[in-house]
Amino acid sequence: MLWHVEIPALEGQWLSILEYWVKRTGQFGQRMPIFGCFLESRMKFITDNYLLFVVAIGSGAMLMWPTFKGAVLGGGALSTSAAVQLINREKAVIVDVSEAEEFAAGHMGGAKNIPVSQIEAKLEAAVKNKALPLILVCTTGARASRVQGMAKKLGYENAQVLAGGLKAWKEANLPVEKA
């Protein structure tokens, strides 16, 4: 005996799959266009609910934007170990964009303090070689991320932000100087 299927339209009657196929197609041996029906119903669902798909694709794109921004535009944040390598191997310049009081409380060794409000005026005087890597730091990395765009407009293409800022630097037990 073949498998049995309960068909809701027949209210509790049990039929073999073969009998169901014959009743459904009208002929034994004729193939039913299952995939075509499946595709039609899905396309109808998509066209009826296109706004749902637009919102889903848009929200997915917004979630993935930081990843793509870092990979494609080179705007990714720099880990503490990568920052140490840049400092040691490529003589990167460290610019702390914190306010003077925050800078005095603690900063990375060799960092130059240029507050966010003075970046456009003082960055070119403080860092003359635009080819050197530029590491931008603040307490958490938020202000430094804003400054990165300004630095790139000024011609510092190798400007990068320390991920997590000075807080991450301290958590990695790296040296901090006080002024």
List the helices and strands and how they pair.
Layout: E1 4-6, E2 14-16, H1 17-25, H2 34-48, H3 50-72, H4 80-90, E3 93-96, H5 100-105, E4 107-108, E5 112-113, H6 119-126, E6 134-137, H7 142-153, E7 159-161, H8 165-171, E8 176-177
Parallel strand pairs: 3-5, 3-6, 6-7
Antiparallel strand pairs: 1-2, 4-8
* Rg value: 31 Å
What's the arrangement of strands in the largest beta sheet? 5-3-6-7
What is the molecular shape? elongated
The averaged pLDDT comes out at: 80
- The unreliable regions are none
Helix/strand order: EEHHHHEHEEHEHEHE
Helix residue percentage = 40-55%
Distance between the termini: 89 Å
Number of strands: 8
The main pleated sheet reads as: 4 strands, parallel
Q: How large is the count of helical segments? A: 8
Strand content: 5-15%
Structural class category: alpha/beta
In short:
The chain is built from eight helices and eight strands, in the order E-E-H-H-H-H-E-H-E-E-H-E-H-E-H-E. By secondary structure, it is an alpha/beta fold. The longest helix is centred in the middle third of the chain and has 23 residues, at 50-72.
Using brief descriptors, characterize the structure shown.
two-stranded antiparallel ribbon; alpha/beta; 8 helices; 13% strand; 179 residues; single chain; 51% helix; 8 strands
